[in-house]
Amino acid sequence: MVDSPPRDRLPRHVGIIMDGNGRWARARGLPREDGHERGADSVRTVVRAARKVGVEALTLFAFSSQNWDRPHEEVFHLMELLRRYLVQEREEILGNGIRLVTVGDSERLPPYVRAPLVELMSASAENRDMVLCLALSYGGREMLTKAVREMCRASVAGRLEPNDITVETVESYLDSARILPPLDLLIRTSGEHRISNFFLWETAYAELHFTEKMWPEFDRDDLMIALQDFASRERRFGQTSEQVSRPAATGEGDPGLD
Ligand code: IPE
Ligand code: IPE
Ligand code: MG
To answer: Has 219 been annotated as catalytic?
Structure first.
């Protein structure tokens, strides 16, 4: 069993691009749908493990804006699986102090998914032990486009002065920044090395961890390996190693430029 890193080296917010369900199934001569079913088991395992070690927020990329273009039968099966997950995991989520939230265009979800989703979000709203965020009908470009649209609207209405727009202003228009801590660690399974339109803005300084494992075979130990990998990284945010490894005394690090 792989140990979890010390609590003070844990990421606050972990995002996972859960990829490889179809290939996992095909490699076993099974329909892609079976891969999604097994993928739901991995979700259960990983949510439990993340909650247990003390991760503050976990975002699971479950369905992208582009995944709507998959064959109708597969989309239907994924929606049905999502509905079942929300119903079956209700007790576990509520019993473990988990707050369920979502990012993405949830208006596009069918009513039989939206209803249990909205109900569980509301029932879990006061929970404080971990935030579980499902990225559903989510696209990073779509979210940024929506933010730009809303900023333009505010500007035209005289509520937002273009010269006053800062990084923080843009962030305040992103749902993720309103409900989640900054993304620290991004995990992608299945050996692909791409973001696939996930958190584009949020990955700016996230640490990236890629694994060859397909999502249905990703387990607790794989999560611990990713957390250990994160704990071993030095995050510099543009500064030098000396700056970030040595706590600056008062005045230190100020080159007197001002
Ligand atoms: C991830 O597995 C699940 C979703 C994107 C909904 P895939 O279905 O993408 O599996 P592969 O990548 O085709 O193997
Ligand atoms: C990313 O996986 C989306 C989710 C995991 C929900 P995809 O399988 O859709 O991404 P691509 O097509 O490999 O880029
Ligand atoms: Mg895929």
So the answer is: no
